[in-house]
User: Which sequence fits this backbone?
């Protein structure tokens, strides 16, 4: 590629890449929140004492942007509890005690898909949300006028350090991905697919190139991306695969693209073949405190503790427990936290890994300005936020910040730049609400 | 108990202290060269400037009850740079006054590291140039009697040989004469990615081209003039100061070209023999404007880079 957006070199630490994926022993209980997606939480359809099986619906989608929730084990509902999500919101969670049998619900049959509407419904019923991390319901993404779709861009860029679960998908679930792509071609008329994979992920690229070579009916291309974080950012990925720019406040579909994570695609393919909704997830269990780091397939709702115990336990007191990668992941405070639909990794970072330098005064070195993929000026944003200058913040396009963390990662003064950008966005949103209510 | 925090949860490990440490390392060749050329008193001047800079910063922080900042090593850098810009026979009390001016007046009063509007060492040098006469009578290398080697090139009728200019065997401030030592330090800073090529290359390049024009395209004379005075130390170590120069490549190029042009103009048309310090100081003041002119267009607003 002649030209690409800026980015940074992060450590890789992808020791789990290519290591065989294992299934976890059935956990004793699972805690399944009703909100594992962007949009309205699902409404519980079970009560305490109900017997459920793998794939039994326990939460109904509520409204257009929402997603249904299914039991990931067979057993008995023991509790409906208030649950504090990692993002700070409260929702209901269904706690299910497993009978250890993992019996599948008898009503599960492959869906009948004969039209675009059927496909959108199938994806909705499968409970599939953006599995790269954002958790946006996938059925909403593909429920657009097929004329508007020029490209389906498959996100195979696993740019976060440690995380290799998408790579595991691309290596082990090529058939599922192929079934999904064929369905998108047949019912949505998609005839151009670009799979973006970083240059250093040769294993995944080979696997996807082989898969692509078996598809003759439409174009499936593997685009090799630079070895720079963050290739997986939606706007970065679309630009690097198609050359199209998604401007502030716009979505991929505005430039004719639908971006789907490779694991979301595999989930679609799997559902079309079996009818089993999204009830389990391949999760990278990593970090300096984990005894045997590996990719583990586990029922949704399995706790961090069960995941770590399965991987030989923790060999040191973790400095941080993280949902996702270390660049954009969310810290959680306790080991009972469950893995959810869009969890691609859980990390237990040691003190050494999570060590951050002392925050000191900004020396205006310009590193943040020169590493931001979108050419934002974090140091100016920080000045504007300190003055609470809404106009300046808008002018500086802080709303475009994808919070990738390039600025903070290399800041020699370890300024909380991402945090300031997040606060700035919230400040602007609050201002807008105030304006609206006037 | 694991802690909660906003992402990112890992860091590259870069720090202000490490960057300043690199700058100190990069100035060692020039310090050694200065000692060899001008004798042991060099070290006395260097030590006085560094120690007084650090002490003044520590005292200022104590008096105004700010967190202590001397561990970031920036005061050491300021002291060292100031010393290298002084004449070897300067009275030591003047070194201390210069350090006081650089650290307290130029830096601390404006809010400390990152908040100063102009480069502390440069501004202190200009202040001393005006306040004390010692700087105007430059030192000569030890053991030289020959007039061409002892005069500063910019005031001499006959220029020192190209080789003497390159290794630094001629009159001038302690750390400015050895182009070789300064280039070694500059290459180190480039390799360590502490600085980028934009400012030094454009600054030095423009002075060379300016000299070419003024000297009727005599390449030898133009080269000699380029290697004279405080150009290399200024272009590599002072003009590249983060706080007082623009962050973007385009901004740096404008800054470097501006420094070069002003240096040329002052050298040839001004009353002072060298214009490097004044040029950098003037461009420091223009930096906020250059920053505004060279803001990159944000990608999500249609910008490319």
Assistant:
């Amino acid at each position: 590629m002649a030209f690409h957006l800026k980015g940074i070199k992060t450590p890789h630490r992808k020791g789990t890449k290519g290591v065989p994926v294992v299934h976890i022993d059935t956990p004793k209980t699972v805690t399944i929140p009703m909100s594992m997606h962007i949009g309205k939480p699902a409404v519980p359809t079970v009560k305490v004492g109900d017997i459920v099986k793998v794939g039994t619906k326990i939460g109904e989608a509520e409204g257009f942007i929402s997603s249904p929730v299914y039991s990931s084990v067979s057993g008995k509902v023991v509790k409906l509890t208030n649950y504090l999500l990692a993002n700070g919101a409260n929702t209901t969670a269904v706690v299910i005690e497993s009978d250890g049998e993992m019996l599948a619900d008898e009503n599960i049959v492959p869906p009948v898909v004969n039209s675009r509407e059927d496909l959108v419904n199938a994806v909705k019923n499968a409970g599939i949300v953006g599995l790269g991390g954002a958790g946006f319901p996938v059925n909403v993404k593909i429920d657009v006028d097929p004329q508007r779709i020029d490209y389906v861009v498959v996100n195979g860029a696993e740019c976060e350090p440690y995380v290799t679960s998408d790579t595991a998908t691309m290596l082990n679930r090529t058939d599922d991905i192929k079934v999904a792509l064929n369905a998108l071609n047949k019912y949505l008329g998609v005839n151009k697919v670009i799979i973006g994979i970083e240059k250093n992920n040769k294993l995944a690229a080979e696997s996807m190139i082989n898969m692509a070579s078996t598809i003759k009916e439409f174009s499936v291309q593997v685009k090799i991306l630079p070895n720079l974080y963050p290739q997986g950012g939606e706007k970065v990925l679309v630009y690097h695969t198609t050359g199209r720019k998604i401007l502030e406040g716009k979505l991929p579909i505005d430039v004719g693209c639908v971006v789907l994570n490779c694991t979301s695609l595999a989930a679609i393919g799997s559902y079309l073949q079996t009818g089993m909704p999204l009830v389990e997830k391949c999760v990278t269990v990593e970090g300096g405190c984990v005894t045997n780091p590996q990719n583990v397939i586990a029922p949704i709702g399995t706790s961090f503790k069960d995941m770590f115990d399965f991987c030989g336990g923790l060999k040191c007191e973790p400095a941080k427990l993280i949902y996702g990668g270390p660049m954009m992941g969310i810290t959680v405070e306790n080991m009972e936290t469950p893995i959810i639909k869009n969890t691609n990794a859980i990390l237990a970072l040691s003190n050494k890994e999570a060590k951050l330098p002392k925050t000191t005064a900004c020396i205006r070195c310009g590193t943040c300005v020169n590493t931001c993929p979108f050419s934002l000026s974090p140091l100016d944003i920080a000045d504007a936020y300190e003055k609470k200058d809404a106009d300046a913040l808008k002018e500086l396009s802080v709303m475009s910040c994808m919070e990738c963390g390039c600025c903070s990662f290399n800041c020699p003064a370890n300024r909380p730049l991402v945090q300031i950008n997040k606060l700035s966005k919230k400040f602007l949103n609050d201002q807008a609400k105030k304006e609206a209510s006037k | 108990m694991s802690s909660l925090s906003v992402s990112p949860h890992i860091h590259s490990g870069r720090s202000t202290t490490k960057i300043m440490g690199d700058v100190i390392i990069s100035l060692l060749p020039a310090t050694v060269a200065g000692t060899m050329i001008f004798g042991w008193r060099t070290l006395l001047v260097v030590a006085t400037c560094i120690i007084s800079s650090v002490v003044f910063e520590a005292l200022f922080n104590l008096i105004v009850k700010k967190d202590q900042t001397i561990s970031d090593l920036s005061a050491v850098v300021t002291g060292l740079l100031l010393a290298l810009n002084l004449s070897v026979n300067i009275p030591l009390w003047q070194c201390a006054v210069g350090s006081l001016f650089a650290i307290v007046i130029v830096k601390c009063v404006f809010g400390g590291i990152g908040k100063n509007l102009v480069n502390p060492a440069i501004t202190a040098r200009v202040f001393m140039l005006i306040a004390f006469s010692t700087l105007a009578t430059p030192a000569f290398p030890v053991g030289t009697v020959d007039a061409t080697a002892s005069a500063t090139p910019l005031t001499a009728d006959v220029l020192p040989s190209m080789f003497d200019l390159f290794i630094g065997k001629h009159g001038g401030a302690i750390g400015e004469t050895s182009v070789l030592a300064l280039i070694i330090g500059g290459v180190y800073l480039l390799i360590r990615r502490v600085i980028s090529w934009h400012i030094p290359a454009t600054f030095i390049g423009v002075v060379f081209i300016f000299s070419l024009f003024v000297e009727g395209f005599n390449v030898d004379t133009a080269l000699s003039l380029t290697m004279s005075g405080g150009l290399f130390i200024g272009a590599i170590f002072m003009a590249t100061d983060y706080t007082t120069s623009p962050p973007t490549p385009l901004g740096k190029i404008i800054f470097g070209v501006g420094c070069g042009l002003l240096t040329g103009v002052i050298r040839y048309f001004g009353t002072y023999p060298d214009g490097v310090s004044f040029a950098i100081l003037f461009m420091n003041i223009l930096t906020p404007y250059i920053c505004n002119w060279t803001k990159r267009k944000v990608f999500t607003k249609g910008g490319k880079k």
User: Anything to note?
Assistant: The radius of gyration of chain A is 22 Å.
